[in-house]
Amino acid sequence: MALDIMKILHKTPLAIDLTEEELTAIASCCRERRFPAGSEVFAEASPGREMYVLCTGRVSIEITIPSQPVPKTVQLAVLHPGMIFGEVALVDSAPRSARALARDEVTVLEIPHEDLRRVMDAEPRIGYMLLQNLATILCERLRSTNLVLRNEWLNSDAQVEDERFHGSLHRMQNVLLWAQLDRK
Fold first, then answer.
1. Which H or E element spans position 112?
2. What is the mean pLDDT of residues 117-135?
3. Which of 11-20, 85-94, 97-106 has the lowest mean pLDDT?
4. What gap in Å lies between CA 50 and CA 110, rounded to an integer?
5. For 173-183, what is each residue's pLDDT tens digit?
6. CA 90 → CA 67, 87, 133, 151, distances in Å?
7. Are the beta carbons of 43 and 99 closer than 8 angstroms?
8. Among the listed residues 85, 79, 87, the one whose alpha carbon sits nearest the alpha carbon of residue 134
């Protein structure tokens, strides 16, 4: 059964303040993809060339902490239909900062960076609105991460607080450093 791409896009934060015609231009870039449960939608540190809209199933966003004696996988989020992921690929060309793993059989809309860039170049208002919407999404995710770190620190005992907070900061620094090193 074919997906109603316009209906799916309308339910995402990408569609905010876009006209029907502008959304149709974005829909022309989308293609349906399916992933079986347990498969990677994309790998951590792989080239970021697409973003995705989750249509069915659940996707786990995970990072690997390389500083551990044995690398450890940390789940950052579980995504549900209507959510977007891999959106940083539209902002920069850096390698993926996390991996996306299909928890169930999933269907996504894949939006290749190059195709969307052509639409954005041809229609600057679409480009402006998409980047504004992406900035809002990224800011919300950053604020959420800050709250998690703050709550982790506040909800611990005095000495444990400091160790957990600094451990969390150390893990975040390692992830950022690792992503930065992969760019070079």
1. strand 106-112
2. 95
3. 85-94
4. 6
5. 555 545 444 44
6. 28, 6, 12, 31
7. yes
8. 87
Is it the case that residue 172 has pLDDT exceeding 90? no
Contact between 136 and 78 (Cβ < 8 Å): no
The pair of structure tokens assigned to 86 is 């891999």
Element (H, E) at 175: helix 158-183
What band does 184 get if pLDDT is binned at 50, 70 and 90? very low
Residue 15 phi/psi, 5-degree rounding, is: -80, -10
Q: What angle do CA 135, 137, 140 make, to 5 degrees?
A: 105
pLDDT (mean) for 67-88? 88
pTM for the model stands at: 0.79
**Alpha-carbon distance 67 to 141, whole Å?**
24
Q: What are phi and psi of 99, to 5 degrees?
A: -110, 155
Cα separation values, 43 from 33, 85, 89, 136, 149, Å: 16, 13, 13, 25, 25
Q: Is the pLDDT reported for residue 108 higher than 50?
A: yes
Domain boundaries defined on the chain: 5-183
Question: What topology is assigned to 5-183 in CATH?
Answer: Jelly Rolls (2.60.120)
- 3-state per-residue secondary structure call for 55-106: EECCEEEEEEECCCCCCEEEEEEEECCCCEECHHHHCCCCECCCEEEECCCE
pLDDT (average), residues 35-44: 97
